[in-house]
Amino acid sequence: MHSADPDRYLDRMPYRRCGHSGLLLPEISLGCWHNFGHVDDQHEARAILRRAFDRGLTHFDLANNYGPPPGSAEENVGRFLAEDFAAHRDELVISSKAGHLMWQGPYGEFGSRKHLLSSLDQSLKRLRLDYVDIFYSHCPDPKTPIEETMGALATAVQQGKALYVGLSKYPLKRLKKAVRILADLGTPCLIYQPPYSILQRWPESKGIHEWLDEKGIGSIVFSPLAQGMLTGKYLDGIPSESRAGRPEGFLQTEQVEQQLDRIRQLGAVADEAGMPLQHLALRWALQQKGVTSALIGARTVAQLDDCLDALDRPALTEDLLKRIDEIAPA
Ligand SMILES: NC(=O)c1ccc[n+]([C@@H]2O[C@H](COP(=O)([O-])OP(=O)(O)OC[C@H]3O[C@@H](n4cnc5c(N)ncnc54)[C@H](OP(=O)(O)O)[C@@H]3O)[C@@H](O)[C@H]2O)c1
Fold first, then answer.
1. CA-to-CA distance for 266 and 96, rounded, in angstroms?
2. Would you say residue 86 lies in a domain?
3. In angstroms, rounded to a whole number, what is the distance separating the alpha carbons of residues 70 and 66?
4. Distance between CA atoms of 249 and 135, rounded to whole angstroms?
5. Given ligand 1 and candidates 77, 94, 250, 296, which is best to mutate, with the most ligand atoms within 8 Å of its CB?
């Protein structure tokens, strides 16, 4: 790996300011939801993190339950961080989350103070870190008072266990309330994490990005390749090593089948634009108002490299954007 040199990041990777905060994030960030669990190839997983960092990508996104089994992605990444990145901790932005089912019993999920703060302690142990840079409420919990969930996020920062807080998948009305409470607590919401791709445009149709932009809150959009569907790999069936082909993969064959027609049409637009579909998808996501970073996954170093190469592609023209809108409207 390269040694610490502030200029190398900007040479290799464009950065964007996260809302009105002081934090810069790489245009492409790497998530460890799949490909980093105990079921995955540890050699490759380690090489992916090292390669990402070498290409100037400084943000790795995790959650308590990533694996499988749940927790194993944090365990494995924690080992790689200790072995390979100990000298680089202050050059990295590491996030984790709590909210989805993680352990048995009444405190293993949702938005209680009990779940969030216990889970963060567990994550820090698995990651072998003193603090995470961003701690998220992973999903809304309508049964827990929102004041309690936001209070737990603020406490995580007061305890020095997180530097910033974020919210994931909150619908706009709840998001607005949560952001207001966090501001009152003196722990402003840094960032929002929604699913967002050409095939999943609800944050746009609900006006979320416009509102975030107005409020100076960043947005890191997850699954910009629609879990791999926006790569063309499924056009001739389901490859056995792909996410839809693997038993532990979250992507279902039926989801792929439902989207095949649109994927084919988008592939033709990408051909015309002279780039592979995955580059078109990433450029599209990065061109949308309010987006700070595109949060990708990669199963191999080659996939990571390919995704990062999308940053060298030109911005999509108005005509291309219009064609995409016609195929996959918001
Ligand atoms: N907040 C939340 O609730 C939430 C939910 C989901 C995800 N996330 C975050 O978002 C991150 C990314 O999600 P994601 O993995 O679904 O993102 P994605 O980038 O849409 O999909 C990644 C997958 O696409 C395939 N792929 C990637 N690059 C490729 C390339 N160049 N050529 C061919 N195939 C390629 C690989 O799957 P194959 O195995 O098929 O090759 C890879 O694992 C997660 O790791 C997590 O950090 C957050």
1. 33
2. yes
3. 5
4. 25
5. 296
End-to-end Cα, the chain, rounded Å: 41
Phi first, then psi: give them for residue 304, nearest 5 degrees: -60, -50
* 24 is a domain residue: yes
- Ligand 1 lined by 225 (C-beta under 6 Å): yes
Task: Read off the CATH number of the domain in which 209 is found.
Answer: 3.20.20.100
What is the residue-level pLDDT of the chain in tens, covering all 330 positions?
A: 654 555 557 778 999 999 999 999 999 999 999 999 999 999 999 999 999 999 999 999 999 999 999 999 999 999 999 999 999 999 999 999 999 999 999 999 999 999 999 999 999 999 999 999 999 999 999 999 999 999 999 999 999 999 999 999 999 999 999 999 999 999 999 999 999 999 999 999 999 999 999 999 999 999 999 999 999 999 999 999 999 999 999 999 999 999 999 999 999 999 999 999 999 999 999 999 999 999 999 999 999 999 999 999 999 999 999 999 999 999
The protein residue whose alpha carbon is closest to atom 22 in ligand 1 is 297
Number of independent structural domains in the chain:
1
Question: Does residue 235 form part of some domain?
Answer: no
Q: Counting atoms of ligand 1 from 1, which one is nearest the CA of 63? A: 47
Q: Is residue 327 part of a domain?
A: no
Instruction: Please give the DSSP secondary-structure letter assigned to residue 6.
Output: H
Atom of ligand 1 nearest to the CA of 305: 31
Q: Say yes or no: CB of residue 278 within 6 Å of ligand 1.
A: yes
Closest ligand 1 atom to the C-alpha of 250? 16
| Domain with 203 in it | 6-226+280-317
CA of 61 to the centre of ligand 1 (A): 11
